[in-house]
Amino acid sequence: MRMLEKKYTFIFIVLILSAMPSFSLFAQNKPKDFFVEAIIYNGDTIELKTLENLTVKARMTDAQRKAYAKYNRLRNAVYVTYPYARRAGAIMNDINDKLIHITSNSERRKYIRSREKELKKEFTTPLVNLSVYQGKVLMKLINRETGNNCYEIIKEYKGGLTARVYQTVAFFFNSNLKQPYNSEREDKEIEYFVHEVQRMYGFQETRRLAML
Asked: Does the residue 61 lie in any domain?
């Protein structure tokens, strides 16, 4: 009787094992190796993963809104005025190059008058539509392109008295023809926007560091 029970028990165990092939498969077929990116941080090896973007929204403070408006105002002014400054700078640089070889005062005045007509014809209409703020940025950018502030340019072309008159007019518009251009400090943001415009429209750099 006991021998019969043992026989049935053995058959029962065999049936159960035969119904569970995953046991034997798992023992025979181990999972293959796989590689993941990792980073070592403070001596610990940590799996490296790229998480999905997380958008965080919050209301801007009054200070942030003012800073954002100031940023956009300057950026817009550079986008509007840089093409004019670039073109005007090219003409003024060309004038400077030509004046180096003209020694006669009368010939210099004659040449300057002829080029002045060119400047007025090309820039009078678009420049009168600029705001006072955009005009300030334009003077900064002309300084950037020529290496000279607008006061020095006018003084060279028209004489010291004319330059002082223009400077007085600029004062009433809360501006200054003598304002410098420093791309490393106070005008760093303008310089950033200039490079942004250059990349967007494929402009090549044409600025001069010093001429007069």
From this structure: no
Residue 71 — pLDDT band, cuts 50, 70, 90?
very high
Structural domain range at position 150: 69-201
CA distance 192 to 200: 12
CA 140 – CA 175 distance, rounded (Å):
11
- Asked if the model's pLDDT at residue 131 lies above 50, the reply is yes
Domain membership of residue 189 (yes or no) is yes
The reply to whether 99 falls in a domain is yes
β-bridge partners, 45:
40
Residue 11 included in any domain: no
Please write the tens of the pLDDT for every residue from 191-212.
999 999 999 999 989 887 654 3
φ, ψ of residue 32 in degrees (nearest 5): -75, 155
Nearest residue to 190 via CA among 153, 138, 113: 138
Count of the separate structural domains present in the chain: 1
- CA 119/CA 132 separation, integer angstroms: 20
